[in-house]
Amino acid sequence: MPDEICYIDTRTVATLLEEIAVVDVVEEALRSHALGRTVLPAEAYLRWTTDDGWARSLTLPAALGMPTGTAGIKVINGNVANPGRGVARASGLVLLFDVLTGQVRTVMAAANLSAMRTAAVSIIGVRRLAPRPVEQALVIGAGPIGAAHVRLLCQEPTVRTVWVHDLDGDRAAAVAALTSDVRVRVDPVRDRASVIGDADVIVAATTSVNAHLGLRHIRPGTLVVNVGLDDCAQDLLLGADHLVVDSWALVADDDKRLLGQLIRSGRVTAAGDSTSARAEQVVRAELGQLIAGSVMVSPRQDDRVVLNPFGMAVNDIALATAVEQSTAAKGFGLPLPR
Question: 0.85 exceeded by the pTM?
Answer without folding.
Answer: yes
